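Subject: Interface between my chains keeps coming out wrong

I've been trying for a while to get a sensible model of this assembly. When I model each chain on its own everything looks fine, but I need the whole thing in one frame so I can look at the contacts. Pasting all components below, labels as-is. Any help appreciated, I'm running out of ideas.
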Amino acid sequence: NAGVTQTPKFRVLKTGQSMTLLCAQDMNHEYMYWYRQDPGMGLRLIHYSVGEGTTAKGEVPDGYNVSRLKKQNFLLGLESAAPSQTSVYFCASREDTPGNTIYFGEGSWLTVV
Amino acid sequence: GDSVTQMEGPVTLSEEAFLTINCTYTATGYPSLFWYVQYPGEGLQLLLKATKADDKGSNKGFEATYRKETTSFHLEKGSVQVSDSAVYFCALPNSGNTPLVFGKGTRLSVIA
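Reply #2:
Try treating it as a single job with all components included. I did that and got this:
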């Protein structure tokens, strides 16, 4: 039961470097999401997708890009990392049934120095 | 828009104490309501949910009743354990395609 898998789990970047976080889900969910979690801020939505080939901005999209080329994968990119992007990133996918349970990955800890 | 307000804590309890974490919501209609739990170093996982008014969700000794009169979904447990130490999030679905709206989380620490 893989569920939602995120890679990498930990990464340290220098300011200005780029990187991509990969999220994969094996539940055939249409909806996928990227959140960031910061102390005292709760969970904030970065971008989301309602199906293959679609993406939309969430609450805090600036500095991030996403792609959903395959239904099972949702990539989050940082083109030029900044210290303000130091955070824990969570990917999630959602059932397409009433009740809308969301399933989360285990998180990716990113530090930008 | 839809929103969730929950007590922010932190909450520190002794083992076997009674737990209540308050959650109130603002929403159109009667959406499903959720409690998620995040253990240290892990992602969020669904703890329990209620899909309609007056429903009671329960799991692992935790309970929450969907009360439309008070627009609340308070989380309760009769006797907490050290292993319950975690951050608890109340949530409800947003409208359209956007996902759940989360409260800011309540950190619970249970000491032996």
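Reply #3:
Confirming on my end. Chain B touches chain A at residues 32, 34, 36, 41-46, 49, 51, 89, 91, 93, 97-100, 102-105 (CB under 8 Å).
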